[in-house]
Design brief:
Number of strands: 11
CATH class of the largest domain: Alpha Beta
Largest sheet: 4 strands, mixed
Strand content: 25-35%
Number of helices: 6
Helix content: 25-40%
Length: 221
């Protein structure tokens, strides 16, 4: 127990240092607590992108097993209504060169945006979240955009397996793949969050994947 407590304190210091190192984050406004290698972030940030940057910074630290995001977004300047935000979202989605016209719909309630609809590729879904998240007044984005079904699960699993094997940044033998319809579950163990994230990105890059459950554990065993 003492060893775990000492490790938690070390993780806390490293997360705080990583937040200070991250240019998109005002670390002084963010509190960090750690229990059993799980990190909780509290405090206020100025935007949704800053909130995501803080979360990613914590996930980059070695031995972090989970990150609980309890940050709140504090809006600077004039208060924006949900109607104001909805109008901005409509303009951003309509003017995007990446997101197919009319493919994504948005609803706004209490500064939380819910995205629905369907796009051909996951990078388009990610682009929609990034574009909407950057709009002033947005506190959080719930992504319910779907992707179309394509290959059989056997073909899909084989494609992902080959892609993982080609990736020099991954210990592919430590990653196990299970495909249920168009949903992929990754399991196994990797040393860092960055490798876990990379494995997830590889799975998402395969056509036909509509959901990825990344159950890969991280840290030293």
């Amino acid at each position: 127990m003492k060893q775990d407590t000492a490790t938690d304190r070390k993780i806390q210091r490293e997360v705080e240092s990583e937040l200070q190192w991250t240019p998109d984050v005002q670390a002084a406004r963010i509190g960090v607590s750690v229990e059993n290698h799980a990190v909780t972030l509290t405090g206020t940030v100025s935007s949704f992108p800053e909130r995501m940057a803080a979360r990613r910074a914590a996930q980059r630290v070695k031995r972090v097993s989970a990150v609980a995001d309890e940050l709140t977004v504090h809006y600077a300047g004039a208060a924006l209504t949900d109607s104001d935000i909805a109008q901005s979202i409509s303009h951003v989605l309509e003017s995007s060169a990446v997101i197919p016209a009319g493919s994504v719909k948005a609803s706004v309630r209490n500064h939380t945006v819910t995205l629905t609809g369907s796009v051909p590729w996951n990078f388009q879904r990610d682009a929609a979240v990034r574009a909407v998240g950057a709009i002033a007044g947005v506190g959080y984005v719930e992504n319910h955009i779907t992707l179309p079904v394509r290959p059989s699960r056997e073909a899909l699993a084989e494609k992902i397996k080959d892609a993982l094997a080609r990736n020099a940044a991954l210990a592919a033998k430590e990653v196990h793949i299970d495909v249920d319809d168009d949903q992929v579950t990754l399991s196994g163990h990797l040393p860092t969050w960055l490798e876990k994230k990379q494995a997830g990105l590889v799975a998402w890059s395969s056509p036909g994947v509509r959901a990825v459950r990344n159950n890969i554990t991280v840290g030293s065993e």
